[in-house]
Fold this sequence. Notes:
Layout lengths: L1 H23 L9 H23 L1 E6 L10 E4 L5 H9 L3 E6 L8 H6 L4 E3 L4 H17 L3 E4 L10 E2 L5 H9 L3 E6 L15 E7 L10 H19 L5 E2 L1
Parallel strand pairs: 1-8, 2-5, 2-7, 3-4, 3-5, 6-9
Antiparallel strand pairs: 7-8
Helix pairs in contact: 1-2, 2-3, 5-6, 6-7
Pathway: Lipid metabolism
InterPro entries: Plipid/glycerol_acylTrfase
Protein name: 1-acyl-sn-glycerol-3-phosphate acyltransferase
Amino acid sequence: MINLVRSLVFYAGYFTAMLLIGILFLPIAPFLPLAARYRLLNLYNYFLMMWFKVACGVQYDIQGQENIPSGPCVIQANHQCEWETVFLQVMKPPVCTVLKQELLHIPVFGWGLRLLRPISLDRSKPARAMKQVLTQGVARLGTGLSVLIFPEGTRVDPGIRKRYNKSGSVVACRAGVPVLPVAHNAGERWPGRHWVKRPGVLRVRIGAPIETAGRTPDEVLVDVEAWIEGQLQEISEVPRRAN
């Protein structure tokens, strides 16, 4: 029962903050330079992380922030729930996220996403989506933005292992930037398929950048997957198993 009450309190703050951001910040955000736009709209993400911690009894254990490079990179992380999309926006801003285009149609939330120059994909057209990731991803990196790509492609429940896609490694190799691997167990605290949150320790591990110079995307992907999966074996409370 306590987790149910905590979750109701959390979502009350979640939607109230989203409404306030929509009223106060969205009207002025389009007129700001991109970096200032990120700083303004990321206030919501900072609030959400703090509020989740306070309302739901979650403790953060985040290690490896010293590994974050100063220049642009391709961030690759396992994908379990909404929390990591929030955290990764504030971990190394400004960052361009590869996401499904349906998210841009959500009132207020989607409007804010549009202003952050994401790469939105139509997943019903995989060949076109892959080409879009490669061309737009390299272009975004060329302007100084980092790019966030979830190699699993969609949310995966804790404990389930899914085949990794190499699109992020291809983008990194073509642009000549490193891959920054990130592993976490956020889905154990913020279930992706259920709205009731769970207290406990949310662990994040940020790895050393994986260089791409002189390497193939397949070689880079092997290192990315091995590092993320190895970390998940250590930090996850749910045993890993093949899907």
